[in-house]
Amino acid sequence: MKILVIYIIIFLFALNDLFSHFNDRALDANLLMLVNITILLFLIIARFQFYKIIRGSQQQVEKDKEDSHCVALERKAYTITSFIQMALSLSFLGLLIGFLLLRETAPSVPFWSFTLMIISVFNFFPNPKLMRITNPNFQFPDPQSNHYNQEIMDQFDDGEKYVILKSLLKVYSVLIWGLVILASGLMYYSIFSGNSQLISIIGIGILLILIQISYTTSLKPNKLK
């Protein structure tokens, strides 16, 4: 609960910073500060959900409701992960944009983003308490193991592996189409604005090649001995 209180205090401090310097900052600085406040809100929601899961795991439920209760806790756990991932992504983008646009005029704003990114990274690490609740039999393998990813996957049953595979395939499709659309958009932007985005387009092309080759290679069957 202490961490939640700290997040709320930081949130209130950030709000005060936004309103007290609203007229002194440019529009882009205020917008980016608003993004930082949104990140804090995501972290607060994630931490609040975490405490709800802890309390929920200590509740005594009837036997016929145990399965639905466990599913509800697991859904909340994934909600926590989603909010933390959004916070991490937004703080990273905020840091890049803030450093690019505001490093001289309003350096405190990208510094906020940097601080929130560090906090989000620490929140992103798997929480042992949460894992014991959502997946009691799961054990993290040795991080120095040469087969770390394989040892993680081996702990899931066939149904869980199917869900993971289905999700990854969906992510792969969205990522490929997203990069194609982005590259096409950059091409038209270069044509109509006169600002060349050639480096970005080349980078996207290289990324597309690497993703597709990596995906196809992973599907290739091993040689028979």
UniProtKB/TrEMBL annotation:
The chain crosses the membrane at residues 30-50, 83-102, 108-125, 171-191, 197-215. Keywords: Membrane, Transmembrane, Transmembrane helix. Coiled coil: none annotated. It comes from the Bacteria. This is DUF3169 family protein. It comes from Robertmurraya siralis.
